Amino acid sequence: MPATRTLLIEAVRDALDAAGVEGTFEVVVERSARPEFGDWSTPAALGLARVLRRAPAAIAAELAAHLEASRVPRVRAWTVTPPGYVNAHLDDRTWGAAVLAAATDLETTGSVDLPKATAGKTLVEHTATNPNKAAHIGHLRNACIGDTVARVLRRTGHAVEVNNYIDDTGVQVADVVVGIRHLGIEPMPGEPFDQYCSRVYIAVSARYETDTELLERRRDVLREVEEGGNETAVFVKDLARRIVNAHLATMRRFDIAYDLLTWESDIIGLGFWRQAFELLRESGAIVLVENGKLAGCWVMPADTAEDDSDDDTKVLVKSDGIATYTAKDIAYQLWKFGLLGRDFNYVPWEGDPTLMSTSIPARPDAPPAHFGHAQRVINVIDARQAYPQRVVQRALRRLHHEREADNSIHLSYEVVALTPAAAAELGVEIEEGRDSVALSGRRGIEVRADDLLDRSIARLSANARDAATATAVAAGAVRYYLLKFSLNQIIAFDFDEALRVTGDTGVYLQYAHARAAGILRKVSDAGEHLAVPAALHPAERELLHSIEAYPRALTETAQALSPSLLTTYAFALASAFSDFYEHTPAIVREDDQAVRQFRRGLVAATRATLADALHTLGMAAPDQV
């Protein structure tokens, strides 16, 4: 069932065609600025005035007359307002019935009227937390963004694969190995393994400043890991495996899941980087530097001689022969698009049939797997990695993979900081006069994701129905807070703001859903035909408009890859429901059975739409709180 806005755009397009206007003219139809002007308006006459060299009011009058004669479904009248807007006044009964019918379809079949999805698979890589420490709030923002983007794309009909990249050959893992094996730092009694490794990482980072010989130990570890087949490589793999399991457990608490864990050590061990290196070398995309401070390094020069400075030249292989993380990212990106000519072996992760992992040894009993070969790749990585991501894209272009380069999307986002109040609650010191504190895992200034959720649960438990409800609402509140800001905003996390029960918060949305569910429990369905009144209360009309806007919000979120668009919609829907609840007579005391039945149907449509939006955002939709 098409949305009303779609019908209106088609009707205006037909009216323009009848007037002889070429089809290239863009038709815009939006909600009217003032209710008395109508429900929807188009400024088409204003745009045509210069083209047709006529007064906008005259053009608008002709359009309105044509539209009136066309008897557009769900519209009772067309009017014109200065300086040339054409306004559609909806027929409450037919329009309201169409909106409620679509909401019923959503609840019973899950169907939403959406444009056809892009063909082919979209591969979303997110989280990619280094396996050397516990996941913190910055990692959680990445995971919430990536998980929600994947959910939105799936909800809008796209085929999606989600990867979590495990950098188990990088510097930060080597730092932890140095701390455990060379400094002998031991775990404390009962200390979770990921938190123990966080503590080791902080201690080693501090020791590097006074003990430069430790840096040589780190280089030894990196070299042995890249060579593989030795005791150090085995130790690192086991250490990373234990931390990855801790990360997965943390993310499950926020309902975040993956299809595939891709291991950097497998990219090296299976020759992915060697293959990519040869492709780049043979094409001339990379060159060996023979003198200067980069002598002995393989680098990818910048696109122009003017930009070819050390800052704009990316080293892919250092003079000691160790590949940089950007080099391995290039190999991985080629695999994602199916361009490398090699593939991983796959095994279920730790016996979990819903999650696969790459593997070097093949297992004959492993189920068939079809990963990679994407049409589009979305890498969710913070804004500080913008340049390395451009180098990855540049590599694709220099290998003449223009389409794939165009479809390599760096979904960039800003970092998370702490407000002074949040820092004080977590025991993090902040300089006087500062309005926020930046996180730093190396310096131990961080908020572990598990601690964040535990504190949020504790705050909500006093008023929650039970422990499970407190956990679900807290997880949803944290997710919502990390999603509601635009991607280019730095978040200064604040507990009071995130957990408020009023305003633009996840708690408010979940409470709105619970209120709707509570009304439906109290007001039984009479089983009669639902009739929309001939004239709607303004709050009823606004709520119907909000419900009908859901497919458009989903579509725009999927196109922009911006979860904050969907959080904005969900908050607007919950707010419209609150206005309806506060400004119309209580349904439970309504004596007119027809009105009672209609308003119950309106509440049911709200609940179904809000539940779908919450689930798409990765949040629980509790019936009781």
Broad CATH class of the domain at 4-90 = Alpha Beta
Structural class: alpha/beta
CATH fold annotation of the domain at 4-90: Gyrase A, domain 2
What is the mean pLDDT? 92
Portion of residues in helices? 40-55%
- How far apart, in Å, are the first and last alpha carbons? 34 Å
CATH homologous superfamily (4th level) name of the domain at 4-90: Arginyl tRNA synthetase N-terminal domain
Description:
The protein is of the alpha/beta class and 625 residues long. It is built from 23 helices and 17 strands. Among the domains are: 4-90, Arginyl tRNA synthetase N-terminal domain (Gyrase A, domain 2); 418-498, no CATH class. Helix 6 crosses helix 7 (193-208).
Short structural description:
By secondary structure, the chain is an alpha/beta fold. It has 23 helices and 17 strands.
Write the layout of secondary structure elements.
Blueprint: H1 4-18, E1 30-31, E2 40-42, H2 44-52, H3 56-70, E3 75-81, E4 85-90, H4 92-109, E5 121-125, H5 137-155, E6 159-166, H6 171-182, H7 193-208, H8 213-227, H9 231-252, E7 260-263, H10 264-269, H11 272-283, E8 287-288, E9 298-300, E10 314-317, H12 325-336, E11 345-349, E12 352-359, E13 376-382, H13 386-398, H14 402-406, E14 408-413, E15 416-418, H15 420-425, E16 437-438, H16 449-461, H17 467-484, E17 491-493, H18 495-498, H19 506-522, H20 538-548, H21 550-560, H22 563-583, H23 593-616
Helix pairs in contact: 1-3, 2-3, 4-20, 4-23, 6-7, 6-8, 8-9, 11-12, 12-13, 16-17, 19-22, 19-23, 20-22, 20-23, 21-22, 22-23
